[in-house]
Design goal:
The complex is a heterodimer of chains A (488) and B (477).
Chain A (H helix, E strand, L loop, with lengths): L5 H9 L5 H19 L2 E4 L2 H16 L11 E5 L28 H8 L3 E6 L33 H8 L5 E6 L5 H7 L2 E4 L19 E6 L2 H11 L26 E5 L10 H16 L3 E5 L4 H19 L18 H12 L2 H14 L5 H24 L2 E5 L15 H6 L5 H5 L4 E6 L8 E6 L5 H13 L14
Chain B lengths: L2 E12 L38 H13 L3 E2 L2 E2 L1 E5 L9 E5 L5 E10 L2 E14 L3 E4 L7 E4 L6 E7 L6 H18 L11 E11 L9 E6 L2 H20 L8 E5 L4 E4 L12 E2 L6 E2 L2 H9 L5 H12 L3 H8 L2 H11 L5 H19 L10 H12 L5 H14 L3 H8 L7 H14 L1 H8 L6 H11 L6 H12 L2
Parallel strand pairs in B: 12-13
Antiparallel strand pairs in B: 1-10, 1-11, 2-6, 3-16, 4-5, 4-15, 6-7, 7-10, 8-9, 11-12, 13-14
The chains are: A alpha/beta (488), B alpha+beta (477).
Bound molecules: zinc ion.
């Protein structure tokens, strides 16, 4: 059943060729086998409850009741998405929210429930989605199923692992600068960051508000499209959500597609040979399918990292102010003063990476530095957005690596945050330019680690981009590979 | 040394919207703590603000009424600081792109008209409030009912020079926000309050001196008193050779002094930046124009019309238009073809006195405009004297009856019948021959004695002019 697409699976559940309970049983069997080692989930609902929910779907199917588009599908959601559930906290990987149960549902959660999806758990992440390895979680370290000595990527590391180890069939993650695509690449799954504004952010605990976007991870572009179709849509609770009609998936003829490779991305010093060669193989496939592939210069590439981090850190420093121990979360009193309450609660509650980003963000917004940093970064962002728009007027997609290297060893880069920041050079472009981007598994590394290549499309043409990715996956098989541990 | 005060006011007006600025919670006053809250105004993780359209409209209304330029692409910004009454640790306000800029209005002080510039008007959310336990309870409690209630902040240019001008400016703003319906202007509830920036400079000097900001002045009197105090205090400091400390101060209305708040407050760097959760508030000139068409007649225009239409003096018209309900009441009474000057006297002197005594608004006194017009009509057609009218008015306050009914029921109608009055006069003249002699001997002032006697005999209901006339006829025989 793990080979079926989500659409086929739901169809079969509805027509009772397969039961939601058997799907749930299979997923929980994987959870029982791998979760203890992989630690993808922060919280998981009890199997008994999951089975009850699946039984409800089966009963509805039996009674011929109308069932939603995700009927009976076990879905994982990243632990920075709020859900009102007595068994599921929203901890954001942070000690300060250790005891926090959200009293409301994120819009995406409402949409999932409306379509009869079964949310089985919350996946681990870097604290407040700040990181690229899921090592910055205050609670646990998630392992890569392809090699448990390696990181799954981040910050949606748990989400990617839940898909890679078949412990969920659809995962919702969030992507601020690559947080869906990079773990998807590290874990050999497909992940999309939609156009900014396509999916409501209401209920997503904010990191960099102007960059954050909720998206899907799944085993294929087709499944990502299926999930995104459910969670997208204008939301009156989110003023940045777009009132744009999400079109039907077009049929794509790859021979009519024009792909652009940024010259700067071909720089052999910037990425591992394996990564470049994986991307080149995809390009070769595209050329063989008759697609046009051309190089263009992206002279602003060296501006991406500073621009992205200034904006993200600045917004984060403000967004994380509310975690003060006053109204919810963990309070540490300190001495009896208010200032001490703030300092002690926040010093104890936040991890090192979060503190680093809050401090840098506070600095770039401070009086006398605003114009030099935040103001300038915003101008550069607008410039980049316009330049990318020009390129996408000529091309259907921009193609590039997701990460300069495949999954690295646990602990390998924790002492060098700067090199981790620099590794986001390929992924942050889509967030800055607000365009959709998808990471596809392409040829693995020499040591059989997954590698992802990304396609970036035009604003609000997410379904077009996903259809292109699906067309590629029809003629390739890298996305069908699964980790060895699943075959034992 | 001669000093010149330089004063600017920052006024906060709570908007009269039904719901909060970024969520659907009610703005109703006086609910139990935290009854008017939701995930958005509690600042829970993951929530987002959605602008209440009414807030934008109110801001535009006030901007138009104060001659401001309306910005069609204004922007919200976050003002970051920590305090338990601020659930997001930032206040959503406006910074470098406020909705209204470069306005002005005129105020009248001692017969002089002065133009005061308005730097900007912007929209923002209010914070909650802290309630500190008393006695053994050493906890502080947070009530977020007020968090997210919409405010307009109106910042004046430092054009104000005297405490009287400051008070007049605040009164004008109060009057305008009430006319527009953008705020109920209830200063006792803190729905209109102001911070006063005061500095002194040597007469003739160009640059400003160091200023202090006195916060949260919530009555016209406090504004004036606080500024008077602050000017005197700064003058004394300067004459003693001290420098003025730039600081935030508070007004103690019991001791009638300003005092310094913790100077740490001054160290704040609010790290303003555009709120990424709220797109630029785009509005169209067409929408602004349509709002302009719905603006009511504002106090200055109404005053000019009252002068022209009712022949009132400038000062009297100013008093009438300060509050729209009084101006409307006045016009309703005046529409009954009665003397507008008399109407002014009744509305401002008599009803004004009762409003002051009872702290009620004009509509709450129980005297309809028809009844007041009737009462004035009774005076004008000599049915009752002015003195009787005041007694009738007191009755009207008590039982809301029509003055006709009261006059009939109590038999208060003025006696103007010359026959009946003549008979009375004859009787009084007969029983007071000594006074008649005095009069005829040239001491004509004694006529007052006779008038008094007749009034006494008629319980004040005799028509005084007719009595005078008849007395003279009879005595001068
Ligand atoms: Zn609310």
């Amino acid at each position: 059943m793990f080979d079926l697409s989500l659409e086929e699976l739901v169809q079969q559940i509805k027509s009772r060729q397969i039961t939601a309970q058997s799907v749930m049983t299979a997923v929980y069997k994987n959870i029982e086998s791998y979760e203890e080692q992989l630690k993808a989930y922060c919280t998981i609902i009890e199997k008994r409850r999951a089975m009850e929910l699946a039984a409800v779907v089966d009963a509805k199917a039996k009674n011929g009741e109308v069932l939603g588009k995700l009927a009976g599908i076990p879905v994982s959601i990243k632990d920075n998405i709020c859900i009102q559930d007595p068994q599921l906290k929203t901890k954001c990987g942070s000690k300060i929210l250790e005891n926090f149960y959200a009293p409301y549902n994120a819009t995406v959660v409402e949409k999932l429930i409306q379509e009869d999806a079964i949310i089985i758990g919350k996946t681990n992440l870097d604290e407040y989605a700040m990181g690229s390895s899921t090592e910055n979680s205050a609670f646990q370290i998630t392992k890569n199923p392809w090699d448990p000595e390696r990181v799954p990527g981040g910050s949606s590391g748990g989400a990617a692992v839940s898909i890679a180890a078949q412990m969920a069939l659809l995962a919702l993650g969030s992507d601020t600068g690559g947080s869906i695509r990079q773990p998807a690449a590290f874990c050999g799954v497909t992940g999309i960051k939609p156009t900014y504004g396509v999916v409501s952010r209401y209920g997503l605990v904010a990191y960099g508000s102007s960059l954050d976007q909720i998206g899907c991870l799944a085993k294929s572009a087709e499944d990502c499209e299926y999930g995104l179709r459910v969670i997208q849509g204008y939301d009156p609770h989110d003023s940045t959500s777009a009132q744009v009609e999400y079109g039907d998936a077009p049929s794509i003829d790859l021979s009519e597609q024009k792909f652009c490779i940024p010259q700067e991305y071909m720089d052999a010093d910037a990425a591992d040979d394996d990564v470049i060669s994986s991307m080149m193989e995809l390009i070769e496939t595209l050329k063989q399918a008759g697609a046009t592939v051309e190089e263009r210069s992206f002279p602003f590439t060296n501006l991406l990292i500073p621009t992205y981090y200034i904006l993200a850190f600045a917004e984060a420093s403000s967004n994380l102010g509310r975690f003060d121990g006053i109204r919810y979360g963990v309070r540490k009193e300190g001495d009896s003063t208010l200032e001490s309450l703030y300092k002690t609660s926040r010093s104890n509650g936040f991890g090192a990476e979060v503190k680093r980003r809050i401090m840098l963000g506070t600095f770039v917004l401070s009086a006398g530095y605003y114009d030099q940093y935040y103001g300038k970064a915003n101008k550069v962002r607008t410039f980049i957005e316009q330049e990318v728009e020009k390129i996408l007027a000529e091309f259907d997609c921009i193609i590039g690596p997701v990460s300069p290297f495949p999954a690295f060893k646990l602990g390998e880069k924790t002492e060098d945050p700067l090199s981790m920041y620099l590794a986001d050079v390929y992924s942050v472009l889509a967030n800055l330019a607000r365009i959709p981007a998808i990471s596809l598994p392409t040829k693995p590394s020499a040591s059989q680690l997954p590698i992802g290549t990304q396609l970036m499309g035009r604003k609000f043409q997410d379904s077009q981009l996903l259809a292109t990715a699906a067309a590629i996956q029809k003629i390739t098989s890298d996305h069908q590979q699964t980790p060895n541990m699943l075959h034992k | 040394m001669e000093f010149e005060p330089v004063i600017g006011l920052e006024i906060h007006a709570q908007m009269a919207t039904q719901s909060k600025i970024f969520c659907n919670c009610s703005t109703e006053f006086g609910k139990p703590p935290n009854a008017n809250t939701c995930p958005v105004c509690l600042g829970l993780p993951g929530v987002l603000p959605v602008l209440n359209k009414q807030v934008l409209e109110f801001a535009v209304r006030l901007g138009l009424a104060t001659n401001c330029t309306i910005r069609l692409d204004s922007q919200f910004a976050r003002k970051n600081y920590f305090y338990p009454d601020l659930p997001k640790a930032y206040q959503i306000s406006q910074f470098d792109r406020p909705i209204c800029e470069n306005g002005w209005l005129n105020v009248d002080v001692n017969g002089q008209t002065k133009k005061i510039g308005i730097t900007r008007i912007h929209m923002e959310e209010d914070a909650g409030k802290l309630i500190h336990g008393d006695g053994d309870d050493d906890c502080s409690y947070v009530d977020l009912n007020r968090a997210g209630v919409p405010l307009l902040e109106i910042v004046s240019e430092p054009d104000i020079r005297t405490p009287e001008e400051a008070k007049a400016y605040m009164e004008k703003i109060h009057s305008i926000v009430c006319y527009l319906g953008v705020s109920d202007g209830d200063m006792e509830k803190g729905n209109l309050r102001c911070d006063a920036n005061v500095s002194l400079r040597l007469a003739g000097q160009e640059e400003f001196g160091t200023r202090t900001e006195t916060k949260n002045l919530n009555s016209f009197r406090f504004i004036q008193q606080a500024i008077v105090y602050e000017i005197a205090r700064q003058k004394e400091e300067l004459l003693d050779g001290h420098e003025i400390v730039q600081e935030t101060r508070l007004w103690d209305s019991d001791k009638k002094i300003t005092y310094s708040m913790r100077s740490k407050e001054e160290a704040h760097d609010y790290r303003y930046f555009p709120d990424p959760d709220l797109p630029v508030a785009h509005i169209t000139q067409g929408w602004v124009d349509s709002i302009a068409e719905t603006l009511p007649e504002l106090p200055d225009a109404k005053r000019q019309r009252f002068i022209n239409q009712y022949g009132l003096r400038l000062e009297d018209a100013s008093v009438l238009v300060a509050e729209q309900s009084i101006a409307d009441y006045y016009e309703d009474v005046a529409a009954h073809q009665v003397n507008p000057k008399t109407v002014y006297n009744w509305v401002i002197m008599e009803m004004g006195r009762v409003m002051n005594e009872t702290r009620k608004r004009i509509g709450e006194l129980g005297i309809s405009t028809n009844h007041l017009a009737e009462l004035i009509g009774l005076i004008e057609d000599n049915s009752i004297s002015g003195k009787i009218a005041k007694a009738v008015f007191e009755e009207m306050l008590k039982n809301n009856q029509s003055p006709h009914v009261i006059v009939e029921a109590k038999g208060l109608k003025q006696i103007s019948d010359e026959g009946a009055l003549g008979q009375q006069i004859d009787e009084i003249l007969e029983s007071n021959p000594a006074q008649v002699e005095q009069y005829r001997a040239g001491k004509t002032k004694v006529i007052g004695f006779f008038v008094g006697q007749i009034m006494k005999a008629t319980k004040g209901q005799a028509h005084p002019q007719i009595v005078n006339q008849l007395l003279k006829q009879k005595l001068d025989l």
